[in-house]
Design a protein that fits this description.
It is built from eleven helices and 16 strands. It is α/β, with parallel strands linked by helices. The strands form three sheets. It has a nine-stranded mixed β-sheet with strand order 10-9-8-7-13-6-14-16-15, sandwiched between helices. A five-stranded mixed β-sheet has the order 2-1-3-4-5, sandwiched between helices. Helix 4 links the parallel strand 4 and strand 5. Helix 3 packs parallel to helix 4. The two termini are about 35 Å apart.
Length: about 375
């Protein structure tokens, strides 16, 4: 149905989409082709700014009339902070629109009917699986109100995230660490448990690559986070803030000490493993956190998996072996009693990063 050239054009639109940070809106990319030549690309930069279709039309510089528009997601058909993309497409004189996937939750249905009614040829489904994956985070947030959760870790070949003494710097090389920071920059928030704060004292900021710092989230039922912890931020540093979730019965004195350090404290129900993770996710979802990167530690990863609240894994694998049964592993949860009940990753991809690899995939349990 579609040529190799058209598949390549949509693939470019997908890559273009990944340049944007439009949360809580979906990432969308677009490309315009005229007379067999790619003349413009566009993407949704950030919420409140031009959508991908409009960005591409503007970049075409008046040459969009009679052209074909390739867009990863069904165009919007409503007035929000920007006008309907359907209207922009019709006004530009686009002759044909090729859509990657349908909008999982259109504000105003009927975008395709509106385009067809305006004389535009519309086709849907080019690289549909890839385009659907591009908006999986948005789709989950719209459907459930919860963030799309990615568990991230750097591990040795025997699955260890640190030595038995707690040393973990650095399991992977610089190329892999830069990629990890790129993942941070794509996220709305980064979450760790208080154990990670006490052992590693991470800043959880974006370094090594250009990018914005996401919201930092700490699960700390008893408010053990020191007021001097790096995760609370440093003066003069571009900062999205720190949010600590504690149990409702946490020590009031510790609460006030952290608030005095400029930290926002949110109380949730206590859970056997600390705090109620589902309540945490609901609170983050209400704050329009769509993409949540969970960086551990092992017990936090285990809790997310045991509760079925993890969507994707991003595992950086180094060609090292610790060979120590007492060293902490990537996940320390209740676990599966049989191989058949184990979590597996589907739609996996393996990316070489120097001497290391990045394995990504979506969680599925049979």
């Amino acid at each position: 149905m579609w040529s190799d050239f058209e598949r390549a054009v949509m693939a470019k639109a997908i890559e273009e989409a990944k340049r944007g940070h439009p949360s809580p809106n979906p990432r969308v990319g677009a490309a315009i082709v005229r007379d067999g030549e790619l003349i413009a690309l566009g993407y949704h930069h950030e919420a409140g700014k031009a959508h991908a279709e409009v960005d591409a039309i503007r970049n075409a510089g008046g040459a969009a009339a009679g052209a074909t528009l390739y867009v990863t997601l069904e165009p919007c058909n409503h007035h929000g902070r920007t006008g309907p993309c359907t209207e922009a497409i019709l006004e530009a004189g686009i002759a044909r629109v090729v859509i990657g996937c349908h909008d999982p939750a259109p504000h105003v249905p009927g975008a395709i009917d509106r385009l067809v009614g305006g004389g535009v040829d519309v086709e849907v489904g080019l690289l549909e699986e890839q385009c659907t994956a591009l908006v999986a985070d948005f789709a989950k947030h719209i459907r459930t109100g919860l963030p799309f959760v990615t568990l991230k870790a750097a591990v040795t070949l025997d699955g260890k995230i640190a030595t038995r003494t707690g040393d973990s710097r650095w399991i992977t090389g610089q190329v892999a660490r830069s990629e990890a920071h790129r993942l941070r920059g794509e996220s709305d928030a980064i979450l760790v448990g208080v154990g990670t704060v006490l052992v590693d004292d991470p800043a959880l900021t974006v370094r090594h690559v250009a990018g914005r710092n996401p919201l930092r989230v700490v699960l700390d039922a008893d408010l053990r986070t020191p007021p001097t912890a790096a995760v609370l931020g440093r003066p003069g540093e571009p900062d999205a803030g720190t949010l600590i979730f504690c149990a409702k019965d946490a020590d009031p004195a510790r609460r006030e000490s952290l608030r005095a350090a400029g930290v926002e404290i949110v109380s949730v129900a206590r859970h056997a493993r600390g705090v109620d993770i589902h309540e945490v996710l609901e609170a983050l979802g209400r704050r329009d956190v769509v993409r949540l990167l969970v960086e551990g530690g092992a017990h936090v990863h285990g809790t997310f998996l045991d509760l079925g609240l993890a969507d994707r894994a991003a595992i950086f694998i180094a060609p090292r072996i610790l060979g120590d049964a007492t060293a902490p592993s990537f996940v320390a949860g209740s676990g599966a009693e049989t191989i058949e009940r184990a979590w597996r990753l589907v739609r996996t991809q393996m990316k070489p990063l120097g001497s290391d690899w990045l394995l990504t995939g979506d969680f599925e349990r049979t």
